Amino acid sequence: KLPIYCGTDRNFNPTAAPNDAFGTNRSKLSYGIVEVSIPHDHRVGEIETPSIWKFEFTEDPSKHIMLHKIKRLKKSRFFSKLAKDIASSDKKSTFLFVHGYNTSFSEAAKRTAQISYDLKFDGKAVFYSWPSQASTFRYRTDEKNIEWSRQNLKRFLEDYLAINEAEEIYLVAHSMGNRGLTRAIVE
Predict the structure, then answer these.
(1) Helical ranges in 33-174 per DSSP H
(2) pLDDT tens, residue by residue, 118-130
């Protein structure tokens, strides 16, 4: 299982399964680590999920990229653990991924794990998940939510960039995530 660090301002449901633990509503900024498994026969660039065409109705860790566990951490513990883990990597590297519109928390976690795994990234992968509605029909709401998340993302980014153990930091954003990330940087 691949540990992926995350910051999010989505609402949390402690009784939900990992895929549904963070919803689509706005909330205060929180931090954690998501354990994601990658199947042995993973294909580069793919996020293997169950397929009705293959009569697969539930996730199977031997066939699909899956979230297994989410551990929420206090801000100070999150950044101290992240700094320590970055310092223990050979290149002392990290990357931050900010997802785009129409993306759930679990999709963002899986994509971040897939990127890290496919690149054989020597460092720590981190993602920021803002409250996208995870619906192609909710573009306008996602626009409002990425704008609302800007200040939280800025605070998260400032703390993330302050990790003095990191020698290489990569910032990656997709689609509407670029709006939030670039605006957080320029402010």
Answers:
(1) 75-87, 105-118, 139-161
(2) 999 999 999 999 9
